[in-house]
Structure formats: structure tokens, C-alpha cells
Amino acid sequence: MRAVVQRVQMGSVEVDGRCIGAIKKGLFVLLGVGKEDDIKDVEYMCEKIVNLRIFEDKEGKMNLSLLDVGGEILVVSQFTLYGDCKRGRRPSFTGAADIKTGEKLYEDFIEMLKTRYPMLNVQTGKYRAHMRITSINDGPVTILIDSKKQF
Which of 49, 52, 55, 10 has the alpha carbon at shortest distance from 31? Predict the structure, then answer.
């Protein structure tokens, strides 16, 4: 699994002109599922993202997690994180999971967040939908995470 994690002051997602998810201070997560991923990747990403210490403490040092600051999380599926642009000009998405697997693991990730961290406000996009995303980045702070630790 791959994720782009952004610290935000706010974030929202629209489908067909209707807001389906919105958060205030917290994390905006673009989540991609790879064809080699399984539930272990879901667990790793869930724990890693929620516990990332990327919020500032009283001294201005990034030392607090989403849980520490009582933040919210907005998760949007993003298969294009597996776009390979090494050859040619058109990305290849052969590293992305098939639709069924991708949706299942995306939903597993959401469910794991809600189950393990019931105090979190977990908002989502809609799998395979055309979405309009709005966010106000805070910092900006943007972190790339890969469950296979390729970067």
C-alpha cells in the first residue's frame, strides 16, 4: 500500500456536486492499493498513519500524532499512486491491485481505523468515483508511506 499523507487545516471530498466527507484539523490521506498487498499491509498503514508524529507540540517541534491532537482523518482511494512513469509518457498502472482487491483492502483500512480508533472522526471518499477534493494544507507537511518500504 502507498499513501500520501498531508497535514491539513481542513479537507473535503465531493461526488456529483455533493459533499460526502469533510474534516477540520487532521490528516488527508490518499491511499493506493498494490497488487501484492494484503491485510498485513492494511494493519501497517493504519498504525503508521495514525501514530505519525507530524503535529507540532508547544515548542513548535513535530512531536504529536493525530491521536495526541484529537484530529480527524479523510481517506480517499487513489490507484494512481501506483502509476509507473519510467518508460514513455503514459503511466502504467500494472502495479495497482485489481478493482475487487483494491476496494476490499481500501474498505478494510477504513474499517480498521474506525474499529481501533473509535474516537477518530473518519471520513472517506467513494471508491472508483470521480471526486473533487478540497484541502488547506498545514505547513505544508506531506509524507509518503509505502508498506513495502520501497521509499
Answer: 49
